C-alpha cells in the first residue's frame, strides 16, 4: 500500500512538471516523462490535428492513441475522460456530444486541472467540467456515463483492477468505454521495469496484454474488442540510460514487445428479474 502511494506521488510530481512544458518537449519523451530523446518522431503519440474539435493549446503530446476516434460518442452523451490532462480528449468529445451533452474530465494533478479549466474558459465551453480526483475512486456518481475514454493513463495507476471496477460502476447499463493504453508482451528488462522515471513515462507501469484484457472481462464487461494496436519503439538514446549496449541489442531482438492498444468494451444491460414463479407463463 505504501509503495502504491509513493508511485502516485511520483506521477503527481512528474505531471505537475509536464503541465508547464511545451508539447514538443513532451512528445519527444516517454509520455512526457522527460526530454530524454533526440529523436524527432513522437514515441507514443498519434496525430490529433485532423480531428474535429482539436484544440492545440490542450494537446500536451501525452497520449498513446486516439480513443475518442473509436468511442462512438453521440449527441447528448455524458462522457468521462480519465486522466484528462489539459483537456485535449474532453474538447474533442465535446464536439461529438454537442451542447446537449456533458463532458467531465478527471485528473490527479492540480496543475493539469488548472490548465484544463483555463482552456475551457477561453473556449466558452460551459458543459465541460474538470474534477481533481483519483480514478481508483472517481468523484462521480454511479451509473451516469454513456461513454468513458482515457488515453495512456491506466498504466500509471498501481491498482488497475480498482480502476476497471470504477469504470463499471460509473457507466450506465449499455454504456461503453474506449481506452488507449500501453501493454506488454513478454517481460521488460529489470532496469526498465524498476526505474521510477520510466514508470512516470508509462512503460514500466504497463502490464501484460493478456492480463489487461482479462481484467476487463473478469469485471463483467462484454464485447471486449481491440480496436487498434501499434508497437511502441523506444529510441536507443533512451534505452542507453538503463541498459548496456549488448542489453539493448538483446532487448530489441527478443520476444518482448511494448504496444499501444485501444480497447472497447460494454457494460451489460441490467436484466429485470421475472415476477414470482409461475406468473411469467400467464
CATH superfamily: Vaccinia Virus protein VP39
Computed CA radius of gyration, to the nearest angstrom = 19 Å
Order of helices and strands: HHHEHEHEEHEHHEHEHHE
What is the mean predicted local confidence, pLDDT? Answer: 83
**Low-confidence runs:** 28-42
Strand content: 15-25%
Please give the largest β-sheet.
Answer: 8 strands, mixed
Please report the distance between the alpha carbons of the first and last residues: 55 Å
Helix count, DSSP H or I runs of 4 or more residues: 11
Shape: globular
Number of domains: 1
CATH architecture: 3-Layer(aba) Sandwich
Number of strands: 8
Pairing-aware structural class of the strands and helices?
A: alpha/beta
Give the % helix. Answer: 25-40%
* CATH class identity: Alpha Beta
- The CATH topology is given as Rossmann fold
Task: Note down, in words, how this protein is organized.
The chain has one domain: Vaccinia Virus protein VP39 (Rossmann fold, 3-Layer(aba) Sandwich). Mean pLDDT is 83; it is low at 28-42. Helix content is 33%, strand content 21%. It starts with a helix and ends in a 16-residue tail after the last strand. It contains 11 helices and 8 strands. β1 (78-82), α4 and β2 form a beta-alpha-beta unit. The relative contact order is 0.15. It is globular and about 55 Å long. It has 282 residues and is of the alpha/beta class. It has helices at 2-18, 23-27, 67-70, 88-97, 110-123, 160-170, 190-193, 196-200, 209-218, 236-239, 245-253; strands at 78-82, 102-107, 128-132, 145-151, 171-185, 207-208, 222-231, 257-266.
